[in-house]
Amino acid sequence: MDEENIDFPDNSVDLLVSSLVLHWVNDLPGVFDKIMKCLKPDGAFLACVFGGDTLMELRQALQLAESERCGGISPHISPFTRVRDIGGLLTASGFTLQTVDVDSITVWYPSMWEVMRDVRALGEGNAAHTRPLRLHKHVQFAAASIYREMYGKELPDRKMWGVPATYQIINFLGWKPDPSQPQPKERGTGQVSLKDLHKINDIIDDPKIVKLREDDMK
Questions:
Q1: Where in the sequence is the domain holding 161, given as residue range(s)?
Q2: Which residues does the UniProt record annotate as the domain Methyltransferase type (predicted)?
């Protein structure tokens, strides 16, 4: 399926799942709007994307090396979405009951060269039309030295010297609104103040505050 040209009929899908592809989309707000339209009421959108801290070590090493050797920098890795942007996109498209969670995974490599090999294998190089077509060898060697100097460490359990690469995964879930979904109470209707939560046992035992039904006692 082409993520930028979702053509499901309106209100026809119960669940839409996307895994690690949405960072390639040019118009994320438009895609979120299309997903909202094709979902049935109370339908769910479940997805994960690479977050902005992905490959931050490689990105920084390349920028420092290129700035030193060439007097300027160019992007060599795909741009990734920030955590705060995901929540904003879900809200702007009308999703409710949102959940956003982040996993940060660190993978250790012998050197920067193995990191770059995996980046190419994943297809995560910069695909922008205006990107530089090559990265000079002297910049690559400088970046490898910077990477090792800034982030390298000895790994006694593996009996090797290694460098880390961070992969940040943003997992998120949003629901299309439906009357059957839980709704927040009106402001001011609460009977318990949050500052009294340390008294929760006393509050629960007070029948004037918490009225228990017979089913609650089972």
A1: 13-189
A2: 2-46
Question: Does residue 107 lie within any of the structural domains?
Answer: yes
What whole-number distance in Å separates Cα of residue 42 and Cα of residue 57? 40
Check residue 125 and report its DSSP letter: B
Q: Which CATH number do you get for residue 118?
A: 3.40.50.150
**Total tally of structural domains belonging to the chain:** 1
Q: Within a 10 A sphere around the Cβ of 165, how many other Cβ atoms?
A: 23
> Whole-structure pTM over 0.70, yes or no?
yes
Alpha helices in the chain, H assignment, sequence order: 28-38, 56-70, 83-92, 112-122, 137-151, 200-205
Distance CA 218, CA 211 (A): 15
- The answer to whether the CB of 48 falls within 8 A of the CB of 172 is yes
Q: What is the pLDDT of residues 159-191, one digit of tens each?
A: 788 999 999 999 999 999 998 888 877 777 777
Rounded to 5 degrees, φ, ψ at 151 are -125, -15
